[in-house]
């Protein structure tokens, strides 16, 4: 009997070598060591934890540590990650966000529930909440003044090309109208202190505005997120008729290149350094007094090397008024920007973030943004 079990253990381990089984079935992480022996997929430790939330349909065990029965091994052999993908991801809409191991838990959890529990990708009718081109519902929105979250009605309309929200539930005029062409949405569980926290940004008069929203129900929040992606996808398909789907997908929503605190000084470099929250969003470096502010206190355009932008560790000699020791100098055609980081790790991360942007050649549409920043009052 014991040898049978050893034999089963060896057989299931060998299955990890089969095509498709070398990466987590749900997030793509390399070398999964867990498996759902009811669904027949190999998953990483983190996704195995999320499978435990759907215990009615998925039962997980360790490939390396748990005992395996012959019938369980046979199921793993007959299904496996590739066959499961063909079944559970049969019709994933192009715009739908498929998370990787780097994404937040909410996106991964809802992806797993959508696949196996709700079977959303086996039947297009189940995709209605995010693919219909119209969505209406209530979200908790952070108030600008006191930081309190208040219930607000939101409407996403592809036909009108907008996302809008209403202060009073029966109000006719929206409090804010956000055009789909400048909209972005990114989950911010750490910054907002809630797993379902979503930061939505849009441009108004070329400046970035932030709103922070959440819904208690994770599915609702992820449906809003994918609804925004769908609306952006359809907008971009019309705006850029020649572009391929793979060109458009990275433009639907984006995460920030880097966020965190640094100290900064003003243009004269004499007024002392102040601690600010910084967000690097594509080529826009924005700073805020509070990470959850609605408006940036300032935005700096970071161009490319060809346009004489560069980043250097340290501060010019005789710089005064900073408290943090790890300086960064950004040289632009017009002036120098001075920053100070709290740790050498932060300094390294920020320099590499700036380097990423500076090393990237400017895209045609970015020249328009650069020109706007230049002529900003
Ligand atoms: Zn995973």
Q: What is the structure about, briefly put?
A:
By secondary structure, this protein is of the alpha+beta class.
Describe, in plain words, how this protein is organized in 3D.
The protein has helices at residues 2-15, 45-51, 70-78, 80-88, 105-117, 128-131, 189-192, 218-239, 245-248, 344-359, 364-374, and strands spanning 34-36, 41-43, 60-62, 134-142, 149-157, 162-166, 176-179, 184-187, 198-204, 207-214, 258-264, 274-281, 284-288, 298-301, 310-313, 326-331, 336-341. With 377 residues, it is an alpha+beta fold. The chain has 3 domains: 2-88, Orthogonal Bundle (Annexin V, domain 1); 127-251, Roll (PH-domain like); 258-374, PH-domain like, CATH 2.30.29.30. The chain has a 7-stranded antiparallel beta sheet. A 7-stranded antiparallel beta sheet has the order 14-13-12-11-17-16-15. A 3-stranded antiparallel beta sheet has the order 2-1-3. A hairpin with a 4-residue loop joins β5 (149-157) and β6. α1 packs parallel to α3. The mean pLDDT is 94. Bound molecules: zinc ion. Zinc ion is lined by residues 24, 26-27, 29, 43-44, 46-47, 101.
């Amino acid at each position: 009997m014991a040898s049978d079990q050893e034999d089963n253990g060896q057989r299931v381990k060998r299955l990890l070598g089969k095509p498709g089984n070398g990466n987590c079935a749900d997030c793509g992480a390399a070398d999964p060591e867990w498996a759902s022996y009811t669904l027949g997929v190999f998953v990483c430790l983190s996704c195995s934890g999320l499978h435990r939330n759907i215990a009615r349909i998925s039962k997980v065990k360790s490939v390396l540590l748990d005992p395996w029965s012959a019938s369980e091994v046979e199921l793993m052999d007959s299904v496996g990650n590739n066959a499961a993908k063909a079944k559970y991801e049969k019709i994933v809409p192009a715009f739908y966000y498929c998370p990787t191991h780097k994404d937040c838990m909410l996106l991964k959890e809802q992806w797993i529930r959508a696949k196996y529990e709700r079977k959303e990708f086996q039947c297009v009718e189940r995709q209605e909440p995010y693919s219909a081109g119209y969505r209406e519902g209530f979200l908790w929105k952070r108030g600008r003044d006191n930081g309190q979250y208040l219930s607000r009605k939101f409407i996403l309309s592809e036909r009108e090309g907008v996302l809008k929200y209403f202060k009073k539930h029966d109000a006719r005029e929206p409090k804010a109208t956000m055009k789909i062409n400048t909209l972005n949405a990114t989950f911010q569980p750490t910054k907002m202190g809630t797993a379902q926290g979503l930061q939505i940004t849009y441009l108004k008069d070329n400046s970035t505005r932030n709103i922070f929203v959440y819904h208690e129900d994770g599915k609702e929040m992820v449906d809003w997120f994918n609804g925004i992606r769908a609306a952006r996808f359809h907008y971009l398909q019309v705006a850029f008729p020649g572009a391929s789907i793979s060109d458009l997908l990275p433009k639907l929503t984006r995460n920030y290149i880097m966020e965190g605190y640094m100290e900064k000084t003003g243009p004269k470099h004499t007024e002392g350094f102040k601690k600010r929250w910084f967000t690097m969003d594509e080529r826009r470096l924005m700073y805020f007094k509070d990470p959850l502010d609605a408006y940036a206190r300032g935005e700096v355009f970071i161009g490319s090397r060809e346009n004489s932008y560069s980043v250097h560790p340290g501060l010019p000699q005789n710089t005064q008024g900073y408290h943090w020791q790890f300086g960064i100098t950004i040289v632009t055609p017009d002036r120098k920007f001075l920053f100070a980081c709290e740790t050498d790790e932060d300094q390294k991360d920020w320099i590499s973030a700036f380097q990423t942007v500076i090393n990237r050649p400017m895209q045609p549409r970015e020249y328009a943004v650069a020109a706007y920043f230049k002529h900003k009052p």
